[in-house]
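ugh finaly. both done.
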Amino acid sequence: MDWWSSLSLEMQFFWTVSIVGTILFVLQLALNFIGHDIGAGDASSDFEIAAEFSVFSVRSVLAFLTLFGWTGIVMLHKGYILPVAVLVSALTGLAAMISVAYLFYLFFKMQDSGSVFYPHEALGQVADVYLTIPPEKQGIGKIHLTLEGNFRELDAVTEQNLPIATGQKIRIIDVQADNTVVVEPLAQIEE
């Protein structure tokens, strides 16, 4: 601890901020990558992902503290006076804070657009029967649908009095509460 006691009070302050900030920032990022998002804000459903730009999140504040501390250490070590070191450190930390907030905003925005499938978007679409669909909603079959370049396999039922066999073309006419689609044979529509 001779090293610590040999530091000036200002340098001890910057070292404390940088070490604590770095440890918490790395821990927060590690937890984020394994699926535990600390400080993400309000809980949302599986289909609602908040893509809002927020400078004051846990991760951006930790980025501020980390860069503020390390920049202060470098500035004082290079011989700058304390007010200059604090100003440059604060500006660097602010830049880090805004950058991290913007990067996560872009990540959430990418996740929000295109990766979430809403079954109602499939209404009116033509698809192929993959597993035979039993008649009169007596069971569930499967259909394959390509929508906006994405391949989907959906549960399907029909109100028709005959089963719809594998390989037939169908049109999606409704979506039930459990996201099972209601279909009818395409041949019947064209007749």
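ok and the 2nd:
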Amino acid sequence: MNTLYEAAKEISDFLDAKEWRFCIIGGLAVARWGEPRTTVDVDLTLMTGFGNEEGYARVLLDRFRPRVERALNFAMEHRVLLLYASNGRDLDISFGAFPFEEQMMHRASAFEFAAGIELVTCSAEDLFVLKVFADRNKDWADAESVAIRQRLDRQYVLKHLRPLCELKESPDILARAERLLKESP
């Protein structure tokens, strides 16, 4: 079995057993919706809300080995918990709380990556929003591959991207995303 899929299944099974809401984002979601590329970690968003992050983090730290010193403090400061799966693969768990992330959880769906490996990923539109909002070269390339391979609901994308860009005070991200969507099939 692919060790990345194995790590993703391990964390997914753990979160499912806790009945916590989450979905896979990042490179594994890109493999589903865009041009597959090499990725070295499992990225996911876990709905914690605001003010509940520490409780979630402590439970996860009881089960998974941290990747950084003072992992709990790092997670509270950056809203991401950095862990290792039991096979040594990296797990990046972002704490979700925004309305967009709530919507993302409702739209997430299962996908079979390999025999016996079914993982819940965000939708193609939500992945596009996450990628362009991250605003890094590799994320723009991922967003473009998703836009080319999927028929995205442009209205949904812009509805959710606009307030995020306003919050980040980055209107240039929104303008670039609109151009990318117009150029896509």
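summary for the 2nd one i guess: The chain is about 55% helix and 20% strand.
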